[in-house]
Design goal:
By secondary structure, the protein is mainly β. The chain folds into 3 domains: 77 residues; 110 residues, Immunoglobulin-like, CATH 2.60.40.3080; 180 residues, no CATH class. The protein contains 6 helices and 28 strands. It is elongated, with a radius of gyration of 27 Å.
């Protein structure tokens, strides 16, 4: 019974490891088919990583072992689980030195062997492993792969790696070959990853909860104001939004606190009339109804969306950035909107709310003196819908035409 329990627990453990072992590669479309670089943010953990555009992100439950995951077409291990010994089989296209490494569950290197081999299918034997879960690394100068191995044996830890043979034959379709650089990041299932990709002047934000290996495509869209400032964009449902606030200097626009550094972070504060003219060509100041579409995409009902004051449940939290809000009033940034608390400027020229509130103009008038706004607060998960005097200074966020 103990042996059966051990086998079952090992099988569940290896299934869990494999469920959190994903490779994410990247492509571009629209204004650029190539990707220069990518900023990666685990929104749940707050961890960050920078990638080159041709890197592959390797998400692992336990990062730190320098491995690149193979599959049954590249590295074959059988039998698996093993008892006394197992065979490792793979093809190498050149005469070279190949290295086999074995890591235990703690990521410790417990065995290693480098062997000069001829071109062909290589067959190695591993024996002497005690019961446990292992990672087998197979590498050469220009490639590196790995596979998981379960041992059910009761061996005395006399580990042996032996090269049995080389079969000179044609390369299989999925032979080991030089691959893109894989960059590890620790990841737990269910966590949300935010990617911000750059290609020349273009930037695109994309949120994903990975459940498998896949390719992420970034659609690069032009969003450049009259002064040549380029803005990141994000696609949310059927809408394409700027993923940052406008920082285009016009008459009747200001930096929060008259500090230019705040413009770089939060964007400018505009009167309503200035806001109507601030957006880049091909973009416009969003209307009240267009914000309702965004809010309902986040889960707000039509009835709630039509109300004034604080509405909905947690839609504001989903819009707020994961940092920068007073008293840990941060959000989850669930759709990549990255709303920051830039505050506002009163009609008397006084500044308010930096770090605590974010106020955005709508293109929709209430009357000749007031227009609709959206408001986010550090101490609220809901979204405020109010009207404000048109000579007040609020933030601008544009929507693609």
């Amino acid at each position: 019974m103990k042996t059966l329990t051990f086998i079952v627990s090992l099988l569940f453990a290896i299934a869990a490891l494999q469920a959190q072992d994903y490779q994410i590669s990247f492509t571009g479309s629209g204004q650029s088919t190539s990707v220069d670089s990518i900023q990666v943010l685990n929104l749940t953990q707050g961890t960050t990583l920078s990638l080159n555009g041709d890197d592959v992100l390797h998400l692992l439950e336990t990062a730190g072992i320098n491995v690149h995951a193979g599959n049954e077409n590249t590295v074959k291990i059988y039998p698996n689980p093993m008892i006394t010994s197992t065979i490792v089989k793979f093809f190498n296209a050149n005469e070279q030195t190949v290295c086999l490494e074995i890591f235990n569950e703690m990521g410790e290197l417990i065995a290693k062997q480098s062997t000069p081999v001829q071109r062909g299918t290589q067959i190695f034997e591993i024996s002497g492993l005690s019961s446990g879960i292992y990672t087998v690394n197979v590498s050469a100068a220009d490639w590196k792969y790995a596979a998981k191995l379960i041992s059910l044996g009761n061996n005395p830890e006399n580990i042996r790696i032996k090269h049995l043979s080389t079969n000179d034959e044609s390369a299989p379709e999925n032979a080991l070959k030089s691959i893109k650089d894989l960059v590890q990041m620790q990841y737990n299932d269910g966590e949300m990853i935010q990617f911000k990709a750059f290609a020349g002047n273009y930037a695109t934000v994309f949120n994903l909860i990975p459940t498998q290996s896949q390719t992420v495509n970034f659609e690069f869209i032009s969003c450049t104001d009259g002064h040549g400032n380029n803005y990141a964009v994000v696609i949310i449902g059927t809408q394409t939004w700027m993923a940052e606030n406008m920082n285009y200097e016009t008459e009747n626009s200001w930096c929060q606190g008259d500090d230019p550094a705040n413009c770089e972070i939060y964007g400018r504060l505009y009167t309503w009339n200035a806001a109507l003219t601030a957006c880049p060509d091909g973009w416009h100041l969003s209307s009240d109804d267009e914000w309702k579409i965004l809010e309902m995409y986040l889960g707000m009902s039509q009835i709630e969306a039509d109300k004034t004051g604080l509405r909905g449940t947690d839609e504001g939290k989903k819009l707020k950035s994961t940092s920068g809000w007073y008293s840990n009033g941060n959000g989850t940034d669930a759709v990549g909107f990255m709303a920051l608390p830039g505050g506002y400027r009163g009609s008397d020229g006084t500044y308010f709310g930096l770090g605590k509130n974010g106020m955005w103009w709508m293109a929709t008038e209430q009357n000749s003196t007031y227009a609709w706004t959206r408001r986010l607060y550090y101490n609220q998960d809901k979204v405020g819908r109010e009207s404000s005097r048109k000579d007040t200074g609020f933030i601008v966020r544009c929507l693609q035409d």
